[in-house]
Amino acid sequence: MFAKIMLAISASCLAFNLWAAEAKAVKWSELQPDSPTLRATVGKMNQQEKTRLMRAVQQRELKNLVDSGKLKPSEFTANDVKLIKEDFKDLNPLINEIEAFEKKRTSEMSTALNGQTIQLDGYLLPLKQNGKKVTEFLLVPVIGACIHVPAPPPNQMVVVQYPKGYDQGDLFAPVTITGKLNIKASKANLALADGASDVPVGYAMSADEVRAYKAAAK
To answer: What is the pLDDT of residue 217?
Structure first.
């Protein structure tokens, strides 16, 4: 009997270790689409070219403000006057590509991680509790997100189910979660000081483990 118990315990530990080993540690940036080609194009530029590209982007933004009526030419600073006269026509195709990717980056999910067991660090924002234990929460990459600062895009938030419950201390407690990540559009109802608000979320997870975050030793 003792041998069977030890065998069962060993098998359980082995299964846990294999599960833990399979969990891929990911960064929040990996939850957003990537463009290796665009990244490589900008990466090959020297510092002078990058500075010129930055000014071209700033010029585009300045023109958009004028076109939308949010800024008048009479309100231009000395730098604005100089910037608006610069010629960046050769960079228009690249800027168009950057703008298109930026819209995609903030709105689409990462299909590569869909259904994958991952490990992710973030800040816990309670949604449901059982006594003093949090059983459902929103995981966000920035402390104060959705309450003190604007909500991140949907692909930077995860609704986490954890029936076992997590003993939360402070609001926005830093945690590490492990479990299968799924692309699932939903809305998290947050109770704020000035009322409730529905926040669009792009990911969901039924967590296998939630633990207090510990910074990696250097």
So the answer is: 62
